[in-house]
Write a structure and sequence with these properties.
The structure is a homodimer of 325-residue chains. By secondary structure, chain A is of the alpha/beta class. Chain A folds into 2 domains: 2-59 and 159-323, Rossmann fold, CATH 3.40.50; 62-152, Rossmann fold, CATH 3.40.50.1100. Chain A has 15 helices and 10 strands. Chain A has helices at residues 2-5, 14-24, 37-43, 61-70, 74-79, 88-100, 114-122, 134-148, 159-175, 190-202, 218-225, 247-256, 265-279, 285-296, 298-301, and strands at 33-34, 46-51, 81-84, 104-109, 126-130, 151-152, 181-185, 207-213, 257-263, 305-310. Chain A has a 6-stranded mixed β-sheet, sandwiched between helices. A 4-stranded parallel β-sheet of chain A has the order 5-4-3-6, sandwiched between helices. In chain A, strand 4 (104-109), helix 7 (114-122) and strand 5 (126-130) form a beta-alpha-beta unit. Chains A and B meet through helix 13 of A and helix 13 of B.
Chain lengths: 325, 325
């Protein structure tokens, strides 16, 4: 398993985060931190919600995408960028490329939500469709890159992307004093890796927790096992959290994450509805896994000051998960 | 029509607004002002959304309610407060009374959203139900007050309430420079009156527009006619805007409002969905009437810096208006 446990690529440092933040500031929001007395009373904790659903493209992934795109030389930029993603990374890379005025090609499963395809096109991106399987995605994507020579911006296993995501908790610790814990959802681990990178450097006393759907708990099982476990096609309402860890994100997870907590589909949907109802924020299911795990594990969070990364707000308003019942 | 055109009660001044703001500050949020590049491009205006949906009780009405409740003497407070309301004023008075620890009784139409009834009870209020018409509400309410002697905090035709609502645009002009226009929804006219009170004093160059559902356009017809026209039971998805003007709010509307614009039910629902989709904010239908009228009357707003009061976020998440289709 050595290739899975020792990253073969450059491991970003906090200096990269500082460079990233200066580079992306013109293209992102410093998102607000909101609180809810109701949810504080319900959990016994002091919760500080870092609202990346109010970010450009309604997703933290704009941070990493902008860092990758605006870090390209003019020569590189001329050739354009490409990625595969069924969701927020697709929108975010399209947004970033649009801001720089360069070409972007996104390989998306033909089953991806039309709203997300429309948004990619709205930002000026080109979509190439694949079948909804890992094998089809990789085959189609290889072809795209072979033809165009475009720079591949991986959704998470990329030092530029991780350094970009790391700017989120850099803002958070500046906005909220004396946090005890920061918790974020974990899918491929890009946001968690960025969070670990920033906090282990500038606030190592803060514990980092990750939250994962029980239906896609490969990261939790990886942390217990001590090596990367990848599931092929997990099924969860938290559609941003289906992808597996890769070597670079595993490096940060295994070295800096205190624990990975899980929640059921019902708990995730209930927490999502609670955030909509009490905080008046549109958040996507992936963003609600954190609150679901806090409600499920009060003993960890009680009396603590807890930063929660709300990762995004891209959701189909015509198909809300609590309406399936 | 003299009783309808000359207020019989005290007309609040900007000094009352200053007192109100100091009084209520511990119990309210200074709500954020958010922007959307997409909506700016769509309207050709610069829009600044003052997010009272992120206010305590998710409604600007907390401002007026807190000013009334915390302005009572200890003697008065002991007897408690009462009101009739189709929604947010009920929650808000219940919240304010709960903060002061005094009794509150609310007369609500039996058709009011369950979420709003639950919230009133959650804050410790008592609900007495009436039929969904102005006449029934007033009859039931008279009985309640006759029995308890509670201080009547009218939802809008009350100088204490208007002075409280006026703190919202006081914050707004502090948060955003050089506004040309401020627009707010109009039902009974409490928010619009407060807006007129503040802006006519400290920023008289700003034009105040009101936005109203076409299905409940009594204020627009009043402004044209030059006297109060009241409908008994208009039907609109914007359930906070069904009530008529009263003498005190009419005083501010006729003297300071530039125009009252209207929008159809379809336009209101489309604008509401647009705010949810693009700004990731849960706003109620009444809050979307403003954007609906801006989209409908681009010539008024184009090139202007426009403050928009987002009045509240209390909506039944199980019954969203675009899902009836």
């Amino acid at each position: 398993m050595s290739s899975a446990t020792e990253p073969t690529m450059y491991i970003p440092t906090y200096d990269d985060v500082l460079v990233a933040h200066e580079r992306i500031k013109p293209f992102i929001h410093e998102t607000p931190v909101l609180t809810s007395r109701f949810l504080n009373e319900k959990t016994g904790a002091e919760l500080f919600f870092k609202c990346e659903n109010l970010q450009k493209a309604a997703a933290f992934k704009v941070r990493g995408a902008c860092n990758a795109v605006f870090g390209l030389t003019d020569e590189e930029a001329k050739i354009g960028v490409a990625t595969h993603s069924s969701g927020n990374h697709a929108l975010s890379l399209a947004y970033a490329a649009g801001q720089r005025g360069i070409e972007v090609t996104v390989v998306m499963p033909r089953t991806a939500p039309q709203a997300k395809k429309d948004a990619v096109i709205g930002y000026g991106g080109t979509i190439v469709e694949c079948e909804p399987s890992t094998s089809s995605r990789e085959a189609v994507f290889s072809e795209v890159v072979a033809q165009s020579g475009a720079d591949f911006v991986h959704p998470y296993n990329d030092p530029r992307v991780i350094a970009g995501q790391a700017t989120c908790s850099k803002e958070l610790v500046n906005q909220v004093e004396n946090l005890d814990i920061v918790i974020a959802p974990i899918g491929g681990g890009g946001m968690i890796s960025g969070t670990c990178l920033t906090l282990s450097t500038i606030a190592p006393q803060i514990n980092v927790y990750a939250a994962e759907p029980l239906n896609a708990d490969d990261a939790a099982r990886s942390l217990k096992a001590g090596y990367i476990i990848a599931d092929d096609a997990p099924n969860t309402v938290a559609d941003g959290l289906k992808v597996p860890l890769k070597d670079l994100t595993w490096h940060f997870v295994k070295n800096h994450v205190t624990d990975i907590l899980t929640a059921t589909e019902e708990e995730i949907v209930a927490a999502m509805k609670l955030i909509w109802m009490r905080m008046k924020l549109v958040v996507e299911p992936s963003s609600a896994v954190t609150l679901a795990t806090i409600l499920k594990n009060p003993e960890i969070f009680k009396g603590k000051r807890v930063g929660i990364i709300i990762t995004g707000g891209n959701v189909d308003l015509d198909k809300l998960p609590w309406m399936d019942k």
